[in-house]
Amino acid sequence: MSGTIVLVLRLVTTLALLGFLGWALYFLTREIQRQSISLANRRIPGISLTIRNEAKTSSLKYFAQAEIILGRDPGCDIPLVDDTISTRHAQLTYHHNQWWLEDLNSTNGTLLNGTLVEMPTVITSGDEIRCGATRLTVSLSENVVIEPTQKIGKKNGN
Amino acid sequence: MHDLKQSRLLRWSAFFLFVQSIILTLSPAVRERTWDVDYRFLHWLGFFLWLGLTNLTHRITIKYLPERDPYLLPAAALLSGWGLLTIWRLDQDFGLRQAAWLGISNLLFIFAIIGVKNLNILRRYKYVFLSGGLLITALTLLFGTNPMGFGPRLWLGCCGVYFQPSEPLKLLLVIYLSAYLADRVSFQLFSFPLLVPTVLVTGLALLLLLVQRDLGTASIFVLIFTVQIFLATGKRRVLLSASAFLALALFLGYFFIDIIHVRIVGWINPWTDPSGNSYQIVQSLLAVANGGTFGRGLGIGSPLLVPVAISDFIYAAIAEEAGLAGSLSLLAIIWLILARGLIIALRAPDRFRRYLAAGVATYLGIQSLLIIGGNVRLLPLTGVTLPFVSYGGSSLLTSFAALFLLLTISNVEDGEPAALQEPKPYYILAGILAFGLASAALSTAWWAILRGPDLLLRTDNPRRTIADRYVQRGNLLDRNNEPINITEGRSGSYQRKYLYPDLAPITGYTHPVFGQAGLEASIDKTLRGLQGNPTSLILWEQLLYGTPPPGLDTRLSLDLALQTKADALLGTHTGAIVLMNAETGEILVMASHPTYDPNKLDEEGDTLSQNKASPLLNRATQGLYPIGWMLRPLIEAEFGETPPTDTELRAFYKRLGLFEAPAINMPVTFDDMQASLQSLRISPLQAAVAASALSNKGIMPAPRIATAVNTPEQGWVVLPALGQPVEVIQESAANEAALSFIEAGTPYWSHLERADLAGTRVTWLTAGTLPDWKGAPLTLVVALEENNISLAKRIGEEMMNAAGQTP
Q1: Cβ of residue B300 closer than 8 Å to a chain A Cβ
Q2: pTM value?
Q3: Which residues of A touch B418 (CB under 8 A)?
Q4: From the CB of residue B51, how many other CB atoms can be counted at a distance below 10 Å?
């Protein structure tokens, strides 16, 4: 008799362990969901770049993504046809509510307003970036803070 | 949301430990299968202490670490509570001590959360911390002791409290390396900045290994160091060269350092020395095997059989009582901690905290893997503790310090993680740890499920004899249901009683130290309830109690009245008597003298096997005596007056089964040496079976001694003879020969013979009933290890008369 009762209890402990692990797994799955939605909701202020090459022809490009790579490689976000530019020359990234310029170990270096960029540097509207013979002028959209609009789940707004 | 997650998970842990505590309370009732037992209650103290402390830390973390990782505290709390209950179940005193350490660890943890606002102090004073730790560890070289009085002297102790400085030293090393590596921007392998910590760690590890003989801590130091350099540099070469270094160290250690040699031998082949150097690992595997899928239940297994179950082998103890289900969950919870630790590292806002979190996770992971792997023979055994679970104040304090570091680092408000140059090392590390845990899970399953049933049958599995104390063994009865060997007492203290000790060489004994002998050994499965009971019952009892069902009573063909007479007649003479029913083969009397008293095995067991007179030997089935012409009546029945040639005689003896073992459920010996017929030896049982042909119309019966089993479902079930009756001589020839061997004035045939071969002297008597005998035909064989015709004759007369009168 005692054996049967304890057998049931033993099964209950196994279920309790599974309960613990089950909830942990459930929470982990939810966390992935939340994280992806909140990342998707994060708005990035757009950046416009006026690009002038050696031939002084200029073009305007607008970006709404968080990572922009400049280089000679056609796969870059801003492909530049210019022999003085490395394959992956420099990148512009948005984090900590700022746009940052970073040199990607290029051969000829990247200049920001005439200064060599040695570490990631914050840029603002009107800054001039120079990669080889190409010049880019930065123009940022209004920096608006956008709250996540979509609440996840029922009552767990965190 | 964090708080909700944490409290949900904590509730599950509390529920789990609550049910475990109930099981532990009820466990004595299950073991002894009665409600009238002393229940265990003291561990509830531990449970409620755990509950209070966990509640407190839960509230403190909500208040002071609002953005902390919500999985870590519940996982750590579950592990430490599980460990506490397991330790309490193993040893009450250590349970109390562990509860005290749990209290101290939790309180220090709480103070640290309230008091330490950021971890920069660790970074700034890294050298102070490290050298402090080294200094205290160095003190163990001078003043080290071991609380158990033997083994590596890694503890500093006074007044009953012991502390093992090498435990926190691992964490101090992690802190130092994180700070050191974070202070440098970029690395070149084999450059000066890496030389300092490399020399430091290698020297430390070697010192620990050579002076302290602590293989576990030394390997943990090397592994932590390797992983941290790997994370900082991102070069896979680091891992490869460290693996090569460890392999080389193991290889050299195998030849030059005895502790490594012993561990490696015990790992590669534990089965060659299961009672010596591999005792721990073999017992650990037996514990895992006994756990099976669902485990025996807390307090119902026998994990105490594994040495140091409370610390080094706590995983085996958990596997035995929580089963594969429990141990896999344990591994999953450890994985939860490690994975969250690495995620915390990746989310950390600066490199110091990133390295620190990853280092702490590595430390917890490597230490868990080393000891779990050692427990299930995945890795060589290293005597380290299982973090959070094992007994030990230093271990528990260090585990909670690690938890504090991880929780504090995870408490970042919406910050952005520091830049990561090389993501590979992190997922390679995660992959290695996951692979390690998965291997541990597979090994556990292998021993618990696939190899388990075989392992448990090993004779060095003490659980069998423990089960004998709790489960009634079947009785041995004579043909009239008179008890011979019975089991007395109540569950928990069952004892075998031998009511007719003179039968000891035949029925044997079952003893926790000396094992089993005689019929107790040969029909053990029936007496133990593993044969004759329905399979479903056997499985159910195994599931409920981990023991076989109650044993089955077995009836023997022996007749105690005749047996008493035979034993009295044989007295102090050395020899054997076999009286059997010539038709059915049932053995009515089997005596072997000298005999011994199996009730006194405890005192005499050691000397018995040395005794020159070999009382343990069953002379009736295992004693071999020169045959001489003791089978003359049979030979004359077959060949008449003309003596047979050697070839003919050999063929005849072969037909009589003298060159093979008699088919009977007892230990028997026989002489298969067929070199010369003159030197042939046979046992009294062989002689009796052969001689039966003369009283049974020329047919040799199949001998039987265990005749029936009392099964719960069908009552007494007859056990068939193992062999077949064989006609060896013609009926008319047999009858004629029997009549020609009648001794004057006796109603039976008989033949006396003396034989002497290489110093073995024997006086044989064979006798049997005549063809016109109305009752059951009988055959008697007496073998005396002396020249004593008159005694043989007297035994023959008295036994044949007594047997003839018995219905």
Answers
A1: yes
A2: 0.80
A3: none
A4: 18
**Considering CB atoms only, which of A12, A20, A95 is closest to B13?**
A20
Best mutation target, B6, B32, B329, to test chain A (most A CBs within 10 A): B329
Distance CA A67, CA B788 (A): 111
Confidence of residue B147 (pLDDT cuts 50, 70, 90): low
Q: What pLDDT digit, counting tens, does each position of B730-745 carry?
A: 888 888 888 888 887 7
The Cα B753–Cα B636 span in angstroms is: 15
CA distance B476 to B481: 9
Q: Would the CB atoms of B30 and A20 count as touching at under 8 Å?
A: no
Which has the closest alpha carbon to B463: B288, B214, B666?
A: B288
Confidence at residue B313, expressed as pLDDT on a 0 to 100 scale: 93
- Tokens 């010996």, residue located: B669
What sign has the CA pseudo-torsion B60, B66, B67, B70?
Answer: positive
Torsion angle of the four alpha carbons B558, B561, B564, B569, in this order, in degrees rounded to the nearest 10: -110
Q: CA-CA distance, B135 to A1, in Å (whole number)?
A: 58
Residue type, B405: L
Structure tokens at B621: 């089935």
End-to-end CA distance of chain B: 88
**B390-441 residue pLDDT tens:** 998 889 999 999 999 999 999 887 667 777 777 888 889 999 999 999 999 9
B29/A10 CB distance under 8 A: no
Pairwise CA distance, residues B675 & B499, whole Å:
44
Is the peptide bond prior to B594 cis by the omega test (within 30 degrees of 0)? yes
Cβ atoms within 10 Å of B111's Cβ, excluding its own: 12
Separation of alpha carbons B164 and B155, rounded Å = 4
Amino acid B743 reads E
State how far the Cα of B228 lies from the Cα of B432, in Å rounded to an integer.
14
Residues of A with CB under 8 A from a CB of B: 1-7, 9-14, 16-21, 23-24, 27-28, 95-96, 156, 158
| pLDDT, tens digit (0-9, with 9 covering 90-100), for B515-572 | 888 999 999 989 999 888 898 999 898 888 888 899 999 999 999 999 999 999 998 9
d(CA B68, CA B60): 11
The answer to whether the CB of B680 falls within 8 A of the CB of B658 is yes
Q: Which residues of B touch A18 (CB under 8 A)?
A: 329
Measuring CA to CA, which residue among B515, B487, B667 is closest to residue B605?
A: B515
Q: Does B57 reach chain A within 8 Å, measured CB to CB?
A: no
pLDDT of residue B673: 66
Beta strands, E only, B492-621 = 495-498, 510-511, 515-516, 554-556, 575-581, 587-593
Q: Do B325 and A17 touch (CB under 8 A)?
A: yes
pLDDT recorded at residue B151? 65
Measured between beta carbons, the chain A residues lying within 8 angstroms of B318 are none
**CB contact at 8 A, B593 and B567:** yes
Closest residue in chain B to residue A96, using alpha carbons only:
B416
Tell me the average pLDDT across B614-638.
Answer: 89
Q: Would you call B10 an interface residue with chain A, using a CB distance cutoff of 8 Å?
A: no
pLDDT tens across B706-739, in order? 999 998 888 899 988 888 898 988 888 888 888 8
SS3 A70: strand
Give the tokens for residue A31: 């966390």
Q: How far apart are CA B81 and CA B95, in angstroms?
A: 11
**Residue B806 region, left (φ>0) first, then alpha (ψ -120 to 50), else beta?**
beta
Whole-complex ipTM: 0.78
CB contact under 8 A, B8 and A23: yes
**Residue B257: closest CA among B216, B209, B223:** B209
Q: Is B414 on the interface with A (CB under 8 A)?
A: no
- Quote the Cα angle for B351-B352-B358, to 5°: 85
